[in-house]
Amino acid sequence: MIDLHYWPTSNGHKITIYVEEAGIPYKIFPVNISKGDQFKPEFLAFSPNNRMPAIIDNAPADGGAPISVFESGAILVYLAEKTGKFMPKDVRGKTKAQEWLFWQMGGLGPMSGQRGHFINQAPQPANAYGLERYSKETDRLHAVLDKQLAGKDYITGDYSIADMACYPWCVSAGRYGTTYENYANIRAWMARMAARPAVAKAYDIGKPYESQRASDEEAKKVLYGQSGDTVKKAGG
Ligand SMILES: N[C@@H](CCC(=O)N[C@@H](CS)C(=O)NCC(=O)O)C(=O)O
């Protein structure tokens, strides 16, 4: 059984997609990040970056004590290695899947996230240079992804953890106005992803938690007021 510490955000959806696709038994432990659950000492004990998702595998492959994993990319690799599913085993295929997984982790996720922040959360009118910087970079990354998808059903050919990592970020960009008008390959791939029953189920699983999301001033302080001091205090 996998304990999944989760909230319905782009990074959270990656892992519900994986466990649903792979058919792994799991139990959700909600981490309401707008209420500060990510700073609870019992969560920080295995997720020291005060971010979800994180997992605890209660039945690791070596038969030893439970293993915890934080960082969504590390979780996807861990689960793919555990189950042998959605990451090729041969060195070439595995390297390709990991290239695009890390591309998402270091590029598409952070850049889209900052763009979303300037559009949705920053005091308006948002700093124009910041908005332009992250919008152009996100657009560049979308162009890269669109080119990579040309002639393929999935990012590296076969469906893999790279698709599971990238898709939720493209969905969330759609929510703040990205139409993918000029990116026909991304549009076709997103339709393919949305049609997968496990992907649809992963998004449905998030719905009951969405109503518990807060976006009031208190929540903004929790999410966007963090500094080194926040970490020092939370660490005790
Ligand atoms: N690189 C991390 C990022 C995780 C992350 O940013 N999670 C956000 C929600 S998408 C979070 O937990 N935020 C809590 C906070 O900002 O305090 C990963 O991919 O797991």
- Strand order in space, largest sheet: 2-1-3-4
Q: CATH first level of the largest domain: which class?
A: Alpha Beta
Give the SSE order as H and E letters. Answer: EHEHEEHHHHHHHH
Output the CATH topology of the largest domain: Glutaredoxin
CATH superfamily of the largest domain: Glutaredoxin
Tell me the distance between the termini.
31 Å
Q: Strand tally, please?
A: 4
Ligand species = glutathione
Domain module tally = 2
What value does the Rg take, in angstroms? 18 Å
Please estimate the helix content. Answer: 55-70%
Task: Pick out the low-confidence regions.
Answer: none
- Please give the count of helices: 10
Structural class: alpha+beta
Quote the average pLDDT.
96
Principal-axis shape = globular
Strand content: 5-15%
Report a brief summary of the structure.
By secondary structure, this protein is an alpha+beta fold.
